[in-house]
Amino acid sequence: MHGRCLAGSLPVDVFSLIGRRGQLGGSLIGGIKETQEMLDFCAEHGITSDIEIIRMDQINEAYERMLKSDVKYRFVIDMASLS
Question: What is the spatial distance between Cα 55 and Cα 58, in angstroms, rounded to a whole number?
Answer without folding.
Answer: 5
